[in-house]
Specification:
TPR_XPO7/RBP17, mainly alpha, protein transport, nucleus, 2 strands, XPO4/7-like, cytoplasm
């Protein structure tokens, strides 16, 4: 239901949005990621069967695509809202780290091995879009202005750290 609500609210973002609702959805995504996305997750879980029936999301790659789509949408429409931007970028950062085959979540690469989910993520067209279009034209929080503050710089750092990780996977 959260994913259905997200589709509805995202379609209306050009007119208006609700900051608290967006933050709640991001909290949902974070919990969903921790529980249902990972190399150790059972792919035959009831959740994935239900997602397939209701939303046509047949596998983890399709769910990751929804996550990245939400991240791009938030960065496009909520780029001047620091709480949403920060939480969105943290989700991107967490996805870019991945969990390498049951090892420590703090080490994204161990002896050249990268989480299968991070490899799936890099192949998504939306991730390729971010890697190729990381400018203020597409992501307003990247805009340089005289009012740049420490929070803006942290957001940029988180964004480029995540993109750097994804680029390194892409480069092999």
């Amino acid at each position: 239901r959260v994913l259905q609500l997200m589709n509805l609210t995202d379609s209306r973002l050009a007119q208006a949005g609700n900051e608290k609702l967006e933050l709640a959805m991001l909290s949902f995504f974070e919990q969903f990621r921790k529980i249902y996305i990972g190399d150790q997750v059972q792919k035959s879980s009831k959740l994935y069967r239900r997602l397939s029936e209701v939303l046509g999301l047949n596998d983890e790659t399709m769910v990751l695509s929804v996550f990245i789509g939400k991240i791009i949408t938030n960065l496009k429409y909520w780029g001047r809202c620091e709480p949403i931007t920060s939480k969105t970028l943290q989700l991107l950062n967490d996805l870019s780290i991945g969990y390498p085959f049951g090892k420590s979540p703090w080490i994204p690469w161990e002896k050249g091995r990268v989480s299968r989910n991070v490899r799936k993520l890099v192949k998504l067209s939306a991730v390729q879009f971010m890697l190729n279009n990381h400018t203020s034209e597409h992501f307003s929080f990247l805009g340089i202005n005289n009012q740049s503050n420490l929070t803006d710089m942290r957001c940029r750092t988180t964004f480029y750290t995540a993109l750097g990780r994804l680029l390194m996977v892409d480069l092999g």
